[in-house]
Structure formats: C-alpha cells, structure tokens
Amino acid sequence: MSAGPRWDDSAGRLRDDSAGAVRDRSSGPRRGGSQVVPRPEGWRLGGPAPWPAPHDGGTFALDAVVDAVRRQPPNANEVPLFQGARASAVLVALHDGPVGAEVVLTRRSQSLRSHRGEISFPGGRLDEDETPEHAALREADEEVALSPEAVELVGRLPPLATVVSLSHIVPVVGRLRARPALRPAAAEVERILHVPLRDLADPAFFREEWWGEREMARSIYFFELEDETIWGATAHILVDLLSVALGADP
207 in helix, strand or coil? Predict the structure, then answer.
C-alpha cells in the first residue's frame, strides 16, 4: 500500500488540486520527498506509532471518524499554554474517498518567510474577537477557496503550542459533504493534497524523534510519505486525529 496522495491510474500519474496538475511518476518521487528537516545535533529515534496497524477498513469510514471526534470531551485548556503565545486555528477538513476518510492538506509556498515548503493545514492567526472556528473557516476560504458553507463543524482536537512560531493552535475538525474542488492561493499555497487516513495510519510511514537534551527534550512526529514529509505541528495534529479515530493514547 502506498501512502500519501494516491496514484490515480495505471500509468502511474499523481493528481492533486494544484491547477489540475498531473505529474509523471517516472519523474522520481521518493520516500519523504526532498524536504530538508532542520534536525538539531544529538537528536535520537523515538518509539513506534502509538496505534497498531489497522486491520478493519471500516475504522476510517468518514462517519466513524466524525463520530469519534464528536465523542471527545471538551478540552479545558482554552488559553495559550505559555506567555506571549499567539492564538491560532487550523481546519482539519475531512471528506469521503475510495478507502474512507481523507484529510485536506497544503504545501506552503516557497516564497513565504516561515515554514516554506512544509505540509500544513489551512489556518492562521485569530483576528480580534474571532473564535477558532471562524478563523479556521476564514483561512481555509482564503488559502484554498473552501467555502465555509461547505463545512459542517464537528469538534476540536487538543490544542498545542509551538516553540518556533510561539503559537497556541486550536485544530477545528470539519466534515465536507463531498471531495471539494479547491483552488490554491498562489501567494501562500503551492499544492493541495487529499490524504487518506488509512494510509497515514500505516505504522511503516510513521517516525518519532526526540529533539533536545534530557528533561528539555521534546517529541517530534513525522509521516514519511511518497514524495512528501509531514512533520512538526501538522504531524502532531494528525497523530491526535488518528489516535482519536483508533482509540489509542498519543
């Protein structure tokens, strides 16, 4: 089973929503792609995926994933986890696909000042007096032309703090009635991906590393897919989503 965006025909071509592009598989996609991860000295390998290899294809049926998110108790940590953190939100948009629920991700433009070329969720900073839900929907509309009216909000995943960007991120989960026709905002988004959760849950594509020394070390998650690497805050949110769907402890 290959992970990441799925090959759409026997000719070995990959389709995504980046201006309807079709890329030839012979151009050389490889495990993890070409992204350079700024690993510090002294990093060490972590443990395996916190879930077993899924054996039930129905686990990732869209209804089952949405119901699992809805059953999560409200998170009490609504305020930033550290002083000076900037309130942010991302949209975890789910829709049905050939093998169950798929999640919408983007690859950030190389022209951006921060996190250039990284895989992310649509999202950004909260405006004044804006809720995480409003911010997530607004940013998804601006970045990939996903209409807020097309999204059924179903819940939140646990918030997380990022050290580099000093952000407090609230992941807002939304359900889409169908796979949307999206359009990347050229200034921010280089590529749009629709990634099956079943592929992400394959332990063969998961990697954990520990960065830092002793008690200051922090866990960093990776999904090394075909031609792409997902890591950092995006991977952390995906681990939480998969753990909720599979009933595992992240």
Answer: strand
